[in-house]
Amino acid sequence: MGESKRKRGIKDVGKKGILYVIATPIGNLMDITIRAINILKEIDIIAAEDTRKIAALLKPLNISHPLTSYFEHNEARKIPLIIKQLEEGKKVALMVTAGTPTISDPGYRLIKEAISKGFQVIPIPGPSAAIAALSVSGLPSDSFIFQGFIPRKGKKRDEMLNELSKQKRTIILYESPYRIKKTLKDLYEVFGDRDTVIAREMTKPHEEFIRGTLKSILERIDEVTIKGEFTGFQKRRKADIKFLMFFILYKISIN
What we know:
Elements: H1 3-8, E1 18-22, H2 34-42, E2 45-48, H3 51-58, E3 67-69, H4 75-87, E4 91-95, H5 108-116, E5 120-124, H6 129-135, E6 144-149, H7 154-164, E7 170-174, H8 180-191, E8 195-200, E9 208-213, H9 214-220, E10 230-235, E11 243-248
Parallel strand pairs: 1-4, 1-5, 2-3, 2-4, 6-7, 7-11
Antiparallel strand pairs: 8-9, 8-10, 10-11
């Protein structure tokens, strides 16, 4: 390593294999970046959360590479196999069904292992449902917490909601539409009646933002078709600087 690199704290990468962490569209194919397309043309294999959906994403781009499944329930078995590909000098792309890998999606353990083995890990930024929704929420975005999915039930769920209620920053949560009504009720009981925005079908033709208080949205949630992508936001009362931004996502498909 040269003297200038040592001074800048740059570490030489001793192995040729590269792991690219590539963000994918959350609903609209046109949101894929030019850089992502160019990188995807050069890689050797794709580790995909859902191989069928990633293949469907790549088909209109005339890109075809070997795919291997990589998701929460098989990652312990797949990580050594993917690391072996990197050891052979392969360029590997990590992709999830929609959005940025590791953001409430698999990838963290693979990335950690690749780094520990000395491989270069390169982010290819792009769509993120959380950030896209935050940008148009109308809630404070200068400081926020991304919590992801909360426990479905029991003591852990209650403890997390109570802990989050103490926060004075915008909070981002993910939830399934099958549990949206229950979660909205629980949030109302713990946080009070905050202003709420639910974003539905983001980036797709029927994109919709449903705004109101928690109570008012609860009263009409049954009128909303529980499909697609949901994102919601809440704010307590005007005199209170605590804010809650509530996301609900489900069944994201590429148009």
